[in-house]
Amino acid sequence: MQLELSEQDQEFRTQMREFFTTKVSPEIRDAVAEGRELTKEQIVEAQRTLNDAGYAVPHWPVEWGGQAWSDLQRHIWNEEMMAAAVPPPLAFNASMIGPVLAQFGSQELKERFLPATASLDIWWSQGFSEPDAGSDLASLRTRAVKDGDDWIVTGQKTWTTLGQHADWIFTLVRTDPDVKKQAGISMLLIDMTLPGVEVRPIELIDGGHEVNEVWFTDVRVPGDMLVGEVNQGWTIAKFLLGNERVGVAPVGSTKRSLARAKRLATESGLLSDPLYAARIAELENQLLALELTALRVVANSHNGAPHPASSVLKLKGTEIQQAVTELLVDVAGPGVLNGDGWESRATPAYLNMRKASIYGGSNEVQRQIIAKTILGL
Amino acid sequence: MDFTYTDEQDALRDAVRGLLTKSYSDFEKRRQATKAEPGYSEELWGRLAELGALSLPFAEEDGGAGAGWIETSVVAQEIGRVIAPEPYAVTVGLAGSLVAAVGTPEQRAEVLGAISAGERLVAVAHEEPGRRWKPSASDVKASQDGDSWTVDGVKAPVVQGARADLLVVSAVLPEGGTGLFLVEGDAEGVQREGHPTFEGGRAARITLTAARATPLGEAGVNRTAALATALDTARILVANEAIGIMEVALTMTTDYLKSRKQFGVTLNTFQALTFRAADMYVSLELATSVVQWATMVLEAGDPAAISAAARRSTLMVSRASRHIGQEAIQLHGGIGMTAEYAVGSYTSRLTAIDHLFGDGTFAAGALADGVAGYDALDPLA
Ligand SMILES: Cc1cc2nc3c(=O)[nH]c(=O)nc-3n(C[C@H](O)[C@H](O)[C@H](O)COP(=O)(O)OP(=O)(O)OC[C@H]3O[C@@H](n4cnc5c(N)ncnc54)[C@H](O)[C@@H]3O)c2cc1C
Fold first, then answer.
1. Do A282 and B315 touch (CB under 8 A)?
2. Is A125 within 8 Å of A160 (Cβ atoms)?
3. Which of A267, B60, B169, B217 is the most buried (most CB within 10 A)?
4. How many CB atoms are located within 10 Å of the residue B61 CB?
5. Size of interface A-B (CB pairs under 8 A)
């Protein structure tokens, strides 16, 4: 056992910190730090800044822009990025479809999409969920039927995050209705400007518009937009959802939010209330435990296999993340009813963050994974 | 940053586990040991000494093995796994680290050598009635007459205070401050009333009446800081013990859920139960991370950092051990309530640990007092 970072990792950390705090636009970082919404242009700008330095997709294969860093270095990269309030590379691009294309895509697909995906010249969205296929994703119904070389796609996706900005959508579609439901699914890449694609906004409880319904009406998708083999979609989806062990738990950003909540509580005198001080101390301790667990996971992952505790990170990470937004609402107090200022943004942020334990494999799904695969129940 | 144990540390774990499972894997043997005086197996204590387990943190010139706290914590975890009643953390961790920190070279060699060899049981008489977890003495007073010292007052509870051959007693010095003294267990003026504790351990109420005392280290020095660090050391060690206990309590529970049938199916068919087991696992993993980190901080040796880490691991373990201990009994149903079945004793021992050196509320209070003094925590700093 060894407490300190190695000299190289320490140096790496300094290098990352230096980069994130000096090279990414201060306006963007301020907006993130204060919990204000970013524009599409700001998200793109931030990712380009990272990508130009080779820091947007460090976990990709080296030939497609990856860095061959250790898991610990990737952890440090992620934490320093969060600590500096730098918006992370768009997850749909960097963490989801990019690694999938690198692993399952044809050479043509790789060449066509990977560079533009890394630089965010193409904005991807994720078209998995449907009205009747949430946690039970495999029961999805959107159909793709072969017509010559093409696929004709019909159906409805929902909860498509930032679909209003998206150029392309990676979807799971049913290509064989007559087999076991997991066995009849394929992954298709769909250009959202194709005729028959329609994006309809959904308003969420915080008043914002971050998700959409996406309708496909007889959309003709070229056959070469299939990823991997026909009916291999479920395997690919599991790869996509399961290959992340760094950054599952939003430690860095939650830490930043908690420090901010503490500063605001100090300014308002609330921190001298022992109940608030104790609540913050408890949260800090849980967050410390989470961070140390994340470090244990990345430092001890064997041959690239995910540590079984990854589900712990998702489960507890989102709980603490939510608890910090709840704390901020309480620190704001009656100010939550103000017309502007941080207090007025606290409740929408809290309401919005309820999503964290629902998407990306709900916390109940994580408990199921722990019970079944770790505890053997 | 590395959370893995070395091959040597793994080998130590295997050896200690082998020895302890031989003694206590049959829970009935543990029950027999805790029923008879002195509440643990003297023979096993000797075997632990032979294995070198009692000498791990002490310097070689003091008769120790010159290993460290990580090795010591490995033993503590194994003690926890079978809830061995041997007073490992209080003797090696608390008494031993105090003597190592402040004793003269002769005292260190004599006392630490005797602890290491398993020849003498050394207990720390520090708690006093009506107080809660202070690093100083209050009502037990030390008096000086020329070169000789005596101590007066009541110490309770003193873990293994009746069996101990030698006591390390904290007492208020004539000039103020807390001094440390060695007092022979059978010295004149030492009256010891031993009793069993709820988890099968032993403690004593010790009344000191002009009992002859030898200053530990240089006479008349305020040892509050050393005492605080020794208590923190013991906190981190018992946290390791608790990790061992919680691991096994969880395994017992999941095994039970897989085997117990009700309504014609095994209990693990019911998601309401498996989810609760999953949450126990979450508590265990998070507590393990903090305890391993705190152990590394202890090994690194900076008292201020050790103090903070001890508070953090105490808080984490207190919350986790209540959660896991309570759920372990609940998910076992009625059998979990019986003394014959082990799981309740695991919870019982966790509760004892929770109150030995300060519980979660105590630690949270201390952390809350300092919460305004920094921006965010950084375990990599
Ligand atoms: C803000 C937001 C953004 C999203 N973005 C995207 C996106 O970009 N692309 C995309 O494809 N999807 C997206 N999703 C969808 C998300 O993945 C689903 O909401 C999620 O999978 C849960 O499905 P559901 O909403 O249908 O809930 P349901 O599956 O109906 O679940 C309802 C409740 O029951 C619980 N539950 C379900 N099954 C079980 C079980 N077997 N055991 C115990 N409990 C169970 C769930 O945990 C939940 O609490 C997003 C969702 C939200 C809220």
1. yes
2. yes
3. B169
4. 11
5. 149
Residues A57-107: tens digit of each pLDDT: 999 999 999 999 998 999 999 999 999 999 999 999 999 999 999 999 999
Which residues sit opposite B149 in a β-bridge? B144, B213
- In the predicted model, what is the mean pLDDT of residues A115-128? 98
**3 state DSSP class of B179:** strand
Q: Least CB-CB distance to A1: which of B3, B288, B379?
A: B3
Q: Give the pLDDT score at A306.
A: 58
Q: Is A244 a catalytic residue?
A: yes
Short-list B6, B75, A372, CA closest to A364: A372
Q: Before A115, cis peptide (omega within 30)?
A: no
Between chains, do A377 and B379 touch, taking CB under 8 Å as contact?
Answer: no
Q: Which residues of B touch A377 (CB under 8 A)?
A: 254, 257-258, 268, 274, 277
| Paired tokens of A326 | 């709840």
Atom of ligand 1 nearest to the CA of A135: 29
A266: chain B residues, CB-CB within 8 Å: 372
Cα–ligand 1 centroid distance for A359 (angstroms)? 5
Distance of CA A54 from the midpoint of ligand 1 (Å): 34
Helices marked H in B36-169 — which ranges?
Answer: 42-51, 69-81, 88, 96-102, 105-107, 113-117
DSSP secondary structure, A134-174, as one string:
SSSGGG---EEEEETTEEEEEEEE---TTGGG-SEEEEEEE
A160 CB less than 6 Å from ligand 1? yes
Residue tagged 């530990």 (tokens): B216
**What's the CA gap between A32 and A12, in Å, rounded?**
24
- What residue spans of A208-273 are helical by DSSP H? 233-242, 251-267
Nearest CA in chain B to A277: B368
- Bridge partners, B205 (sequence order): B193
Residue among A293, A297, A364 with most chain B CBs within 10 A, to mutate: A293
A126 lines ligand 1 (CB under 6 A): yes
Phi/psi of residue B143, nearest 5 degrees: -125, 150
Cβ contact B296:A1 at 8 Å:
yes
pTM of the model: 0.94
Tell me the percentage of chain B whose pLDDT exceeds 90: 98
Instruction: With beta carbons less than 8 A apart as the criterion, state whether B278 and A370 touch.
Output: yes
Which residue in A45, A244, A291, A326 is the catalytic one? A244
Residue A17 has pLDDT above 80, yes or no: yes
Report residue A221's pLDDT band, with 50, 70 and 90 as the boundaries: very high
Ligand 1 atom nearest to A352, measured from its CA: 1
Mean pLDDT of chain B: 97
Cα–ligand 1 centroid distance for A160 (angstroms)? 12
ipTM over 0.90: yes
